[in-house]
Design brief:
Structural class: alpha/beta
Number of helices: 5
CATH superfamily: Flavodoxin domain
Order of helices and strands: EHEHEEHEHEH
Helix content: 25-40%
Oligomer: single chain
Distance between the termini: 25 Å
Low-confidence stretches: none
Length: 159
């Protein structure tokens, strides 16, 4: 299963492509109160840096999932508050959790991965892999490019 949060559709595009490639379902975590504009950007960065948790409108049923992919943008070098809440409150005991992280700049790749894996502490989850993809600026990438990136980086398929 692919679980994701996306504010500006970049992460949604990656999560959708990953779910399609893996022939799996995708579940979008939505914030209870929609963020918008500069205030949403600033509050999101602050909440992420402060490691705050925000409950989503709904949680997915993981059923008998043995492995999941959690997709989130990186804000202020950390995972988003709604993803942090999901990781702390979902039943992840024994579940392998992989991360697909999107960011504007990959210069902090190790810090981004650390933020994601640190959020698993105390959950009983099995840390899997973490992949970081750059989504600079407001440019939207086409679905073919996203698919090729995922196939190359996550599946090891050479183009």
């Amino acid at each position: 299963m692919v679980i994701y949060y996306s504010w500006k559709n970049h992460t949604r595009a990656y999560a959708g492509a990953l779910a399609a490639i893996k022939n799996d379902t995708a579940f979008e975590l939505k914030e209870q109160k929609k963020r918008s504009g500069i205030p949403g950007f600033i509050s999101g960065g602050f909440q992420s840096a402060a490691k705050r948790e925000l409950p989503p409108a709904a949680m997915p049923d993981l059923g008998k999932a043995g492995e999941i992919y959690v997709c989130t943008p990186i804000w202020a070098s950390g995972i988003t508050p709604v993803i942090r809440y999901f990781l702390k409150h979902a039943k992840l005991q024994g579940v392998t959790v992989n991360f697909l992280l999107t960011c504007a700049n990959i210069s902090g790749i190790d810090a981004y991965k650390k933020s994601a894996f640190d959020a698993l502490n105390g959950t009983g989850a099995v840390p899997g892999a973490a992949y970081v993809f750059a989504c600079p600026g407001k440019a939207e990438m086409d679905s073919g490019t996203i698919r090729r990136q995922i196939e190359k980086v996550i599946l090891g398929v050479e183009q």
